[in-house]
UniProtKB/TrEMBL annotation:
This is Terpene synthase. It comes from Chitinophaga pinensis. GO terms for molecular function: metal ion binding; terpene synthase activity. It comes from the Bacteria. Gene3D superfamilies: Farnesyl Diphosphate Synthase (1.10.600.10). Its EC number is 4.2.3.-. Belongs to the terpene synthase family.
Amino acid sequence: MPTITLPRIIYPFPSLINQFVTAAHEQNRQWVADFGFITTPEAMARFDRSRFAWLAARAFPHAGFHELCTIANFNTWLFMLDDQCDEAQLGKKSVYLEHVTDGFMNILKHNTPVDTVLGRSFTDIWERMQALGDTAWQARFIRSMEEYFTSCHWEAGNRAADIVPTVAEYVTMRPYTGALFADVEAIEIIEKVYLPAHILQHFIVQRLVLACNNIVCWANDIFSCAKEARQGDVHNLVLVLKHERNITLQEAVNETARMHNEEVKLFTALEKLLPSFGAETDKELERFMAVLRSWITANYDWSFHDTGRYQVKEVEVVINS
């Protein structure tokens, strides 16, 4: 079996971690047990190794304890949804997946109960989020989740029809499949950063958010390419590049790393081009930007140093050819 060498990634941003990380982990493990995600000691041991609370704590380093637990539970829920899709082959059953995600959308839009583990736990998260965010924020978050679920349907349709997306299609859809837009919307309620709509919609701010999203998702594609290649899933930038350009896996990893590094350069360049919106707004915008930077380093630090989910190494990953 061939080996691939993963690129060494260095970011020009600080690595931070929330002071409440250990307490948030304890709350998170109790939460997954209470809602029935974890039912055996073996499953809890695997959950402990995943250390999902550390990802949230790195991404939202200044959040309060309650807010950190809320976003840690939300991101854990996303991982649990992803795992259940894999285990139940739900990721290939596009019609049934749409039925499931319609239920989640009814929770978001109408607070309609869904009597499943995923449904009850999502209701719990949403109730806490509604208490933290006003109706305008809730509308933005609902839209970001609807886009995420739509992207899940796109992936499921591809799997069912055995379609490998083009690189252009994949790059367009990847920001949605990672659900990071929802996490970016959550900055307001988790880190208490309040920016007016015209600032959030400013074209440079929007492109910075997309750059952050691309950096996180493409780095994740590098970290998880071996796992996804083994599972036969093509929804990974490394794997679609390999397929479309008929190149080796190592060449595809290198090209993904190049694209990722260019996006980091774009992010740092765009930061310098942000105009002034006045002293108070500039201060809030800097806090918003700080969370975007934290998300970038959080994804890398968690993937390499915290979690046992991907088991990535900086030197080699062995995968099937």
